[in-house]
Fold this protein.
Amino acid sequence: MPDLISIYEKLFSVFGHQNWWPGETEDEIAIGAILTQNTAWKNVEKAIQNLKQANLCSFSAIFSAEEERIKKLISPAGFFNSKAQYLKNFASWLHHKGGFSRLKEYSCRKLRSELLSIKGIGEETADSILLYVLSCPFFVVDAYTRRLVHRHEITSSNRYGEIQKIFMENIPLDIELYKNYHALIVKLGKTYCKRNPRCDVCPLREFL
DNA sequence: CACCAGGAATGTA
DNA sequence: TACATTCATGGT
């Protein structure tokens, strides 16, 4: 079983620095994290473009907008009934807190538990927002990450916390490393080995 | 036409 | 705890 550092170095040597998460503002990043739940990123881009065009790509705007209007704008991202409500829920929470800038005084652990208490924010979405917006060191475990660890037999567990624990106990505690590693895993997943564990061109084939 | 995509909530056993 | 179902659009 290859160690996680070796995999990271291999991925970095192939793909280089990633400069992720896509999104120009804190709000846009968090909105994207919610909209991309079980949805192709391409569809999320359309939804975000619609929100921008309507000047609704911020939580302060979403907070006071009609929910039906949000639904129509984000419809390309699917599950619009649920996601419109999720965006509203997050917007209410953020409004109550007074914005992202007022969250600096909270511990990362506290922030995580608060995010998880919002309906529509699960572990992956919470950690994505924590890592990419709030600079908290939580490793993001997504579908690509699960596939990677299972394919490489790093663990047989499919539990979120279990997989996250393995990463956080085996790589240095470094925000930028967490961001880059996650981004590289997604880059790998989007580029190669979608369903074929032994595809010839996968950069990690030496580990398979 | 079947299957899936950077999940989460809800219900069942 | 471990699965199953539901939510919905657009690409392959």
Q: What stands out?
A: Residues 26-132 of chain A form a domain with the Endonuclease III; domain 1 fold (CATH 1.10.340.30). Chain A is about 60% helix and 0% strand.
